[in-house]
Amino acid sequence: MSKDASAKPKSLLVHLLAGGSAGLVEACTCHPLDTIKVRMQLSRSGNRNPQGKKLSFVGVGVRIVKNESFFALYKGLGAVVSGIVPKMAIRFSSFEMYKGWMADSKGKVSTGATFLAGLAAGVTEAVAVVTPMDVVKIRLQAQLHSMADPLDIPKYRNAGHAAYTIVREEGVSALYKGVTLTALRQATNQAVNFTAYQELKKYFKKLQNLDELPSYQHLILGGVSGAMGPMSNAPIDTIKTRIQKSNSTKSGWHRFTEVTTEIIRKEGYGAFYKGLTPRLLRVAPGQAITFMVYEKVRVWIELVGAHWKKDPVVM
C-alpha cells in the first residue's frame, strides 16, 4: 500500500473525531437560541405580551423561562446532542473527502470545488442525520408544558420517546418530513459556510505569513462565515420548521405548497423571516465555536498521532 493511500483514512478519522467534538461543544452552548427561534417560527399570530405588543426574541426567551422554567430552553437538546456529534463528524469528514476527490493533480482545490464539496457535504448530513434529528427536536421544542411541574406531562417525554412515538403513530417516513427542504438548507449553508471560511482562512494565513492561525481568529472567521448561510435561506428554514411540526400525512409537495400559501395569505412575506435574529445569534456563534474547537482538536489529534508514531508505547 502506498504512503498516500494509508494516510487518507487516518486523515478522515481526524476530521471525524474533531468534527464530532466541535458539534458537542456547539450544541451545549447554543441550544437555547434555537428553541427561541423555533417558537418564533411556529407562532402564526406572532408572539405577543398581554398588552398585544409583539415580543422580541429576548421577550420570547423570557416568556419561555417564566412559563416553563429555565430548563425549557433546552427542550430537544437530547435529540440535538445525539444527532449533532455524528452530524458534525459526517459534515467535516465528507467535506474533506469530496474536496479530495475534486483536487487537481497537485492537490490544490479551487474555490468552485470547495463550494461544490460544501453542497455535497450539506446534502449528506441532511439525509444521514439532520432531518430525523430536526423532526424530533422541533416536536419537543413545540411543546408548551412546564418543566418545573412534574404533573404537567407532555406527549413527548424525551428524544428517544419522541422518536418512538412518531414512528409508532406516523411511520418511519415521518422522521423524514421536510427532507428535501432540509437538504436544500444544509447544502446552501455548508456551501457558503465552508467556501467563506476556507477563503478567509487562506487569506489571513497568507497575510500574516502563518502556517496555523490562532484560535481567536478561527473563532472570528467561523462566526463571519456562519452568518452568511441563514441570511440566504431563512424562508426555506421557516417552511421546513412548519412542515416538520405538523403530523400531516399528505405528500411532501402538497405540504410545501399548503404551508407556503398559508404563510403568505395569513401572515405576509415577512413571516418567512420569523426567527432570523435568534437563528443568526444561534448559527453564527455556533459556527464560530465549531470551527475553533474543530481546528484545535484536529491539531491535538495530529500532534498525538505524530508523537505516538515517533515514540510508541511498548506494552
UniProtKB/TrEMBL annotation:
Gene3D superfamilies listed in its UniProt record: Mitochondrial carrier domain (1.50.40.10)
Pfam families: Mito_carr
Assigned GO CC terms: mitochondrial inner membrane
Database matches in SUPFAM superfamilies: Mitochondrial carrier (SSF103506)
InterPro entries xref list: MCP, MCP_dom_sf, MCP_transmembrane, TXTP-like
Source organism (scientific name): Jimgerdemannia flammicorona
Solcar repeats mapped onto the chain: 10-101, 112-203, 213-300
Single GO MF annotation: succinate:fumarate antiporter activity
Membrane topology term: Multi-pass membrane protein
PROSITE patterns from the UniProt entry: SOLCAR (PS50920)
Signal peptide, first to last residue: 1-27
UniProtKB keywords: Membrane, Mitochondrion, Mitochondrion inner membrane, Repeat, Signal, Transmembrane, Transmembrane helix, Transport
Top-rank lineage group of the source organism: Eukaryota
Protein name: Mitochondrial carrier domain-containing protein
Family classification: Belongs to the mitochondrial carrier (TC 2.A.29) family.
Cellular compartment(s): Mitochondrion inner membrane
